[in-house]
Amino acid sequence: MTHVQLTWIEKRIEHWIRFGRIAKDEIVDRRRRIVSFRPGGIFAFVRWSANDYGTVSSRIGIVRAVGADEPFTTLPCVQPGGDILLSIEGWPKVSQVLGHIDAVDSAGVDPCDAAPDHWRHVHNRIAAGHQPRAYTMERHRAWLKRREIEG
């Protein structure tokens, strides 16, 4: 399984999972917990930190949990790592991704069930300063059919 360490120190360090099917949730102490995802599960991991003068860092990663024999990319707080589908820095862009996740949700699709290629598309479009295409039920049905054919 892929393990993600979440830390919450109010107005200093805030790590949270925006979406994903958590297989295991372990509370370490009142500020830390570890959540785990099964191989193949997709989740969004948000990391935000600040100091006395304001926000220092805002990041979001959409990651596919990998199996024991799969290659992976390392990511802070994620053990062992994962297949990174999207990685965005800076609050304006992170906010844009969060808005896109909300749009996928409101289209009637659980974001962790959306096509992995769509999250790559969102990463590339936002990184290039463009608006990502909407993820519709029609696109989702096409993804489900493609997955069924590929086996």
Poorly predicted tracts of residues: none
Please state the overall shape, judged from the principal axes of the Cα atoms: globular
What is the strand tally?
8
Average pLDDT works out at 94
Q: What's the end-to-end separation, in Å?
A: 22 Å
Helical percent range? Answer: 25-40%
Number of helices: 3
Task: Provide a short characterization of the protein structure.
The protein is α+β, with helices and mostly antiparallel strands.
Structure characterization notes:
Helix content is 28%, strand content 41%. By secondary structure, the protein is α+β, with helices and mostly antiparallel strands. A 5-stranded antiparallel β-barrel has the order 1-2-5-6-8. α1 (91-106) runs antiparallel to α2. It is globular. The two termini are 22 Å apart. The mean pLDDT is 94.
List keywords for this structure.
151 residues, alpha+beta, five-stranded antiparallel β-barrel
Topology:
Blueprint: E1 2-9, E2 13-19, E3 24-27, E4 32-37, E5 42-51, E6 54-65, E7 73-75, E8 78-89, H1 91-106, H2 116-127, H3 137-150
Helix pairs in contact: 1-2
